[in-house]
C-alpha cells in the first residue's frame, strides 16, 4: 500500500486501553477478501485494533507473537482475555506446550491454510520474523537435532556469536539470544550458514499488494508509559500466580521461559529480588525489547501503512 501515514485521533490516546473507535474511523475501507496484517511494538494497542476490525469488517484474529503461542502463559504475555476471545474467534494463541520448540517455520506452516479461508485472517503481533516469513518468503531449513540444541543451550552469547559466519552476523540482531542461537544451530547442524539458506528463499505466501499491511509507528515516551501501566495491570491480574504455577517446570533455557517478566517474577519467587525490583527489571527489559522492535519495523516495513498516535 502507498497511502500516506494516518494518525490516531488524540481522543483515543486519552481514553486508553481498548478504545479504538477513532482509529477505526480513520482506516481505509478494508475489502472483504483482503487479509489484514497488524504489526507493532509491545503494548502499542495492536490486539485492540485487530479485535475492532474483526467486529466491524469480519475475520478471525490470528496470533503473530512468539511468546503468546505457549499454553502456560496468558497474563504475563498479554494474550487476549477470554472476554476478547468471546467477541471474535482467535487462533494460534496458547496452542503450543511450554517445552516444545517452536520457530517461524512452524508458525508459517500453521498460517498457510488460514490464508485460504473460510474467514479473513487478521494477523496481529510483534514478532517481525513471522511477518517477514509470510510476506518475504522463508526457506525450509531442516529441523535442529536435539543434541545440537542441547550444546547450544550450554553456550553463552559470546561463544555462539564466535561460531557464526560474518554474512549471517550482518543479518541478525546480535543481541537477540534466540536469533543468534538459531543461526549457530543451523550452521552446525547443516554445514551451511543461515545466510546461505536465506539466499534460497522461495516466493512469499502473501504479497503486500494482496493484503492490508498496518504497522504501529509510536513515540518512545508514549509507549514507555503504556508499558509500565500494562505490567502493573499484569500484576493486578494474576501474573505472579501464573508464574508461580510454572515454578516446578521452569527452565531458563526454554524459549517459553524467557518471555519478558517470567525470569524477573521467578527471581522474586525464589527470593533473589523484591517484587518492586522484579517489576522494575521487567519494565526495563520490555522497554529495551520495544526499542528493538521499533527499529526493526521502521527498517523492514517501509512499504506498510503506518499508524502513528498523536502525543
UniProtKB/TrEMBL annotation:
Pfam families: IPPT (PF01715). It catalyses: adenosine(37) in tRNA + dimethylallyl diphosphate = N(6)-dimethylallyladenosine(37) in tRNA + diphosphate. Keywords: ATP-binding, Magnesium, Nucleotide-binding, Transferase, tRNA processing. GO terms for molecular function: tRNA dimethylallyltransferase activity. The record marks 127, 149 as: Interaction with substrate tRNA. Gene3D superfamilies: 1.10.20.140, P-loop containing nucleotide triphosphate hydrolases. Its cofactor is Mg(2+). Its EC number is 2.5.1.75. Substrate binds at residues 42-47. ATP binds at residues 40-47. Belongs to the IPP transferase family. Catalyzes the transfer of a dimethylallyl group onto the adenine at position 37 in tRNAs that read codons beginning with uridine, leading to the formation of N6-(dimethylallyl)adenosine (i(6)A). Monomer. PANTHER family: TRNA DIMETHYLALLYLTRANSFERASE. NCBIfam families: miaA. This is tRNA dimethylallyltransferase.
